[in-house]
Amino acid sequence: MTSPAKSRQPGPRRAADPVLSFRHVGKTYDTFAAGTKHALNGVSFDVQRGQRIAIVGRSGSGKSTLLHLAAGIDVPSAGTISWSGRDMSALTERERTRVRRDNIGLVFQFFHLLSHLSVAENVCLPELIAGRRAASVGSRVMQLLQRVGLADRAKDAVDQLSGGEMQRVAICRALIRRPSLVLADEPTGNLDDTTGRAVMDLMFEMVEETGSTLLFVTHSQELAARADDIWTLHSGTLERS
Ligand code: ADP
Q1: Rounded distance, CA 196 to CA 42, Å?
Q2: Burial code of 100-109, b = ≥16 C-beta within 10 A, e = fewer?
Q3: From ligand 1's centre to the CA of 139, what distance in Å?
Q4: What is the pLDDT along the chain (241 residues), one digit of tens a residue?
Q5: Could you give the CA distance from residue 241 to residue 230 in angstroms, rounded to a whole number?
Q6: How far is the CA of 36 from the centre of ligand 1 (A)?
Q7: How many CB atoms lie within 10 A of CB 36?
Q8: Which ligand 1 atom sits closest to the C-alpha of 68?
Q9: Residue 60 Cα, ligand 1 centroid: separation in angstroms?
Q10: Which residues surround ligand 1 with Cβ inside 6 Å?
Q11: Nearest to 198, CA basis, from 158, 238, 149, 240
């Protein structure tokens, strides 16, 4: 016989829930010059655990808006967004920030590293913000830096690094808390082709090693082709191939 504890619903986070869901999501911006701007219209999708999805589209088609909404940095004007089955709109801003910190790794085109901190301190930062002590995460920091070939640069200031090296540090920072979802906005947009390819190789490998799911925006058809699926935004509407 099934015990009452076993038959109980496990709560809002069920194993089969997609990592990220959009349902009829719209986003408008009110602008002084142009009135209401529709950046996203009726966007619906599920991202399943372990998937790697590329988002492509012209400049202004809504790619960054979609990533910001997926990260809970901004909220939709219409529709619902869920993280592992949890409706984001049911969370306060503070709760959203906490869920983001615990579950999402972010990688940006311009790295967004803190130039006054060392390489290791930048990687460590999400753990310190989450309340962990630097000593308790030191070995994980070094393990990640080793993985990207930068262990010998751990104590250097980040502004001494090349662009490709900075993005490798940013990837380590994004992965340090083993996020279920990594969101990357043009991660190679500021790098030359060869460096960009090498950075993406590392990102794909490390996301897989961490067991994370990856949603990334790119202009590069070559990089997009390496994803499991390519989704295209046309003026705020999502087309899935
Ligand atoms: P992409 O990342 O594909 O270049 P964005 O998501 O940045 O596109 O922008 C989509 C549309 O929304 C564009 O027309 C852009 O001008 C507009 N937009 C984006 N952010 C804002 C904002 N904060 N205020 C007003 N309009 C915005």
Answers
A1: 32
A2: bbebbbbbbb
A3: 40
A4: 444 444 444 444 445 689 999 999 999 999 988 899 999 999 999 999 999 999 999 999 999 999 999 999 999 999 999 999 999 989 999 999 999 999 999 999 889 999 999 999 999 999 999 999 988 999 999 999 999 999 999 999 999 999 999 999 999 999 999 999 999 999 999 999 999 999 999 999 999 999 999 999 998 999 999 999 999 999 999 998 6
A5: 6
A6: 12
A7: 9
A8: 6
A9: 6
A10: 29, 31, 37, 39, 57, 59-65
A11: 149
Out of 25, 32, 59, 65, give the residue to mutate to test ligand 1, the one with the largest number of ligand atoms within 8 Å of its CB. Answer: 65
Full-model pTM: 0.91
Chain centroid to Cα 153, Å, comes to: 25
Q: Which atom of ligand 1 is nearest to the CA of 62?
A: 6
User: What's the 101 CA to ligand 1 centre distance in angstroms?
Assistant: 24
Question: Could you give the CA distance from residue 122 to residue 186 in angstroms, rounded to a whole number?
Answer: 20
DSSP one-letter code for 23: E
